[in-house]
Specification:
Blueprint lengths: L5 H12 L5 H19 L10 H13 L4 H20 L26 H9 L6 H16 L3 H5 L6 E2 L4 E5 L5 E5 L2 H10 L5 H5 L18 H14 L9 H14 L4 H8 L4 H4 L1 H17 L6
Antiparallel strand pairs: 1-2, 2-3
Length: 301
């Protein structure tokens, strides 16, 4: 792939430093910009000289190909952000993306792990040292509560209530909710909070955060991604299928499959609208149909 131009690198650095975008987001932006730059080179013009007509033709080209609606929408967002940045910086005099109509994103269904795969992954976690105890507690919490990764890394020690088996989670917009602590999660957290776990990680440092890195500081979202990748690989599960958000998807889907009320799942996940939670009912139906056609002797007659 062609290296992005200097103006694009300035934009990506701005996203990283000023906006705090994650490495995965930066790479997605870089890919989208590189693709557009390469397409413009076939037209023998630099990308920054693109016209409104160029963009209309480019996105028409993407839609006619094999690109999903969500990919086209992301590319449009990336390029609008880049050209808006160049306009603000005085690098261009006109933003040709200003009249672009946002691409409609198709709402794709979440892709949870199967219950057997999730059990395989969680049962493979060890308890041999402090980081192993932390990883077990972390992954049990992600699956057991459906918490977002940002919520999980933001949990403080004072948010745990072992008397009532509840955890206080702070979600989007600083909204707080109480989530239950199941017996398996409770045991994993208590083991981690014992002398062989979190105490061994803190050293001389004092921090209120529940989950710590190997240096005794708060665990980051990127650190969670690395932990999940490591354990999925060790358990023989395709790492492309697993992320922190997949644990959230799996929690909701598996609960609904076992008869949980949708409003209970909505409350657990912290969804503002039940319409968001209803996506998981579609996943449950999809899973049911797959199991039915795989197992029923007369399903294919």
């Amino acid at each position: 792939m062609t290296t992005t131009s200097s103006p694009a690198e300035e934009f990506l650095q701005w996203l990283t430093i000023e906006r705090g975008r994650s490495p995965a987001t930066i790479e997605a932006y870089r890919h989208d910009i590189d693709e557009f730059c390469e397409w413009m080179r076939t037209r023998h013009r630099p990308a920054r000289r693109a016209s409104e007509e160029d963009f209309e033709q480019y996105f028409g080209h993407l839609r006619e190909g094999t690109h999903a609606d969500s990919t086209v929408a992301r590319a449009m967002s990336s390029l609008r952000g880049w050209f808006g940045f160049m306009l603000d910086e005085g690098q261009i005099n006109h933003d040709p993306t200003g009249r672009l109509k946002p691409s409609r994103r198709g709402r794709s269904l979440p892709k949870p792990l199967g219950e057997r795969e999730m059990s395989t992954l969680l049962n493979s976690l060890g308890t041999h040292d402090a980081t192993a105890l932390r990883d077990r507690a972390l992954l049990e919490l992600l699956y057991g509560t459906g918490a977002r990764v940002s919520e999980a890394v933001g949990i403080n020690l004072e948010d745990l209530d072992f008397d009532e088996d509840l955890i206080l989670v702070t979600g989007k917009g600083s909204k707080q909710r109480l989530v239950p602590m199941g017996s398996t999660l409770r045991g994993a957290l208590q083991d981690y909070l014992g002398p062989a776990g979190r105490t061994a990680l803190t050293g001389v440092k004092k921090t209120a955060r529940l989950f710590l890195n190997a240096r005794g500081g708060p665990l980051s979202r990127q650190g969670v991604d690395l932990i999940i990748h490591k354990h999925a690989l060790a358990a023989g599960i395709d790492t492309r299928k697993v992320s922190a958000h997949v644990f959230r998807h799996s929690c909701a889907t598996h609960m609904l499959a076992h008869g949980a009320d949708i409003r209970v799942v909505q409350e657990l996940l912290g969804h503002a609208s039940i319409a968001t939670t209803q996506i998981y009912t579609a996943v449950s139906v999809t899973s049911l149909k797959r199991e039915y056609f795989d197992a029923h002797p007369r399903a294919h007659e």
